[in-house]
Amino acid sequence: MQTDPHILRAFDRDLHSVQALVVRMGALVEEAIGKAAQALHGRDDALANSVRREDAAIDALEEQINADCARLIALRQPNAGDLRTVLSVMKVASNLERCGDYAKNLGKRTTVLNQSAPIGGLSASVLRMAGAVQQQLHAALDAYIKRDADLAASVRARDSEIDQIYSALFREILTHMLEDPRTITGCMHLHFIAKNIERVGDHATGIAEQVIYLVTGALPADQRPKGDTTAFETGA
Amino acid sequence: MQTDPHILRAFDRDLHSVQALVVRMGALVEEAIGKAAQALHGRDDALANSVRREDAAIDALEEQINADCARLIALRQPNAGDLRTVLSVMKVASNLERCGDYAKNLGKRTTVLNQSAPIGGLSASVLRMAGAVQQQLHAALDAYIKRDADLAASVRARDSEIDQIYSALFREILTHMLEDPRTITGCMHLHFIAKNIERVGDHATGIAEQVIYLVTGALPADQRPKGDTTAFETGA
């Protein structure tokens, strides 16, 4: 039915151009997370505000990707396998859009945190965590573009490391709150920032799972390793 | 092309059956949120654990909806308008799945909170907030099934009320932490619970926006920038 090479090429060409948008979106999101963590660490309001403003470009890209995918489906009427690929593009764009929101939120909380004194070395820990998450996101998108299930599997495996960094940071934040109640409000913001960065890591894993789905035809059956145990912590 | 009444009926029948799954999924999610808040308020470990277990059924429904939608697209090759409807089904299912996760997380944190003394009247405030969010979710799904853009617009308008309830609860939590540092760990959990319930409200708004998109053909203009990314094409 879809054996006419003309039609096949048209689908591939359309897919390629929409995937180029995903790559651009991914680059913007990685950059936003890095800049947001740097703005926090450097107490840089201007940088934080630019991250907040630039989220609009990420949202606009998602809208365009969704519109292009819908047009692609309607126009090319892809077969089941191709359709799965197009639907995965929309899933990945949706993951990236959420990550952009988290970066924006990080920028917002940074401008609030800059109004009071810095709290210990917490922002350095956040910066390290953001760096690790950026790498995960980059590897996940790389795996996506190359359809590399092994690389995707390694992204999944490393997610528990991010969760462990988050858990350590959570305990660090808790210690500051208990030792100096004046830091409580700031610590609440930092806790959200840490949790949101951990969620970006979860979305990187989500993208990696889409890759495994695309390559193998099934989502990973095993429950992926979860290292964030703070929901179970009863504290001091 | 798609004027054969036989084909039209087949699409509508398929759409109807997949939408029935969305309705069932929505009912499970509403119930999970209500039960989770009650488990917290009543310090009921058994109820909290049942919410955690039952999330698997919600996840399974999303998987089925996605598979059914993909099959529907591949089989019926819907025109642009019908395709938009099918894609919206997947978006709504994705919103509901996230809400289910939040309910599950609420259950998890409840079993932890039950290990220490209750903190003031905070769980009653959480219960009220959960009730308001359940209503929002119910109205959003109602608007979705009836394709009622007015009802959807009212859901969007009421989201700021949820945000206000959350803000008041945030201040209440902060006060407890400052007055009695022994409550800090518990308050961190309660803060997450409150934030997650607020996020369920955001997803109800997301569903309402899908309704507006379906009925009017465009997302509400004041919410998100549309798909025109030309302003960013030459950006750095």
From TrEMBL, chains A, B:
Q: Which domain of life is it from?
A: Bacteria
Keywords from the UniProt entry = Cytoplasm, Phosphate transport, Transport
Q: Which residues cross the membrane?
A: none
Q: Where is this chain's protein located in or outside the cell?
A: Cytoplasm
One Gene Ontology CC term in the entry: cytoplasm
Role: Plays a role in the regulation of phosphate uptake.
Q: Give the similarity note.
A: Belongs to the PhoU family.
Instruction: State the NCBIfam families in the record.
Output: phoU_full
Could you give the subunit structure recorded for this chain? Answer: Homodimer.
Name-wise, this protein is Phosphate-specific transport system accessory protein PhoU
Species of provenance: Pseudotabrizicola algicola
